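ok trying this again, last paste got cut off
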Amino acid sequence: ALQCAELPDQRRRKKKAGCPGLGLFYTILSAFLFSLASVLLKKIEDVHSVEVSAIRCIFQMAFVLPGLIYYKTGFLGPKGKRIFLFFRGFLGSTAMVLLYYAYQVMPLADATVITFTSPVFTSLLACIFLKEKYSPWDLLFTLFAVTGVILIARPPFLFGSHASGIEGSYSNHLKGTIAAIASTLSAASTIVILRKVGKSVHYFLSIWYYAVIGLVGCLIALFVLNEWRLPHCGRDRVFLILIGLLGLGGQIFLTKALQIEKAGPVSIMRTMDVVFAFILQVLFLNHLPTWWTVGGALCVVASSSGTAIRKWRHSVKKAKQREI
């Protein structure tokens, strides 16, 4: 009888194990789709980043709506969590708009690298708002990340007034850098809010708030800026649809990766975003990254990977202690 009881348990374990490395493959695929969407955004002419964000939100809503109906989660969520969901939606959509703006006004690789300082800012914000431990290692990784951002931003008082390897004017490069940093801070704040909410709110509901609040915010901003307009040519319209689909695909594969793989390896593998950004920038945008950007990328990747490895090891230790 015991052997019969063990058999289904063994089968369940085998089923759960699945294909080794599949989660990491999904992460790489997600990184590639996000990078491809960024390249298409650079190729679009005369379309404001807010309009691109609005179209992305429409695709998110179309995907999430059937899921909300299927899982019967409702559209507002638990009463005590609605304020957190609102800020998750507001900060998440703000991060998206600012990132798209950064992609439009500065080199793709530079903007992508800056966004990878997010784990460092998350640790800092989690220490302030969630009272999580902030160790000397976290401080070291923060300094690495800040160094990487400085190498990419290349402020004139450190690097002189003639910065090489930037797109357009230095003022645009600086605006893009500020937008990318603000986007990273908003994304880090979103992660802290999601940690606060925990598993009490369904993932689809979290995306729903992000898409709805993002769409409403984008439409108001477009009305105020008087920027809403369809692209002039059919190619740009196709690119807009592809950006929505690729962004959605990237989100789905990243979610799948986190479902079947530990967060630590996924976070480390996500640095492939930077590699793809460098390759696609050279292949499709004919823009060679400078050595300053490469140096900044190495600092930021070391920082984000170090943060991910530390958290992964900490979670493994905790899991072992629970078993004991």
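PB: full thing came through this time. The radius of gyration is 21 Å.
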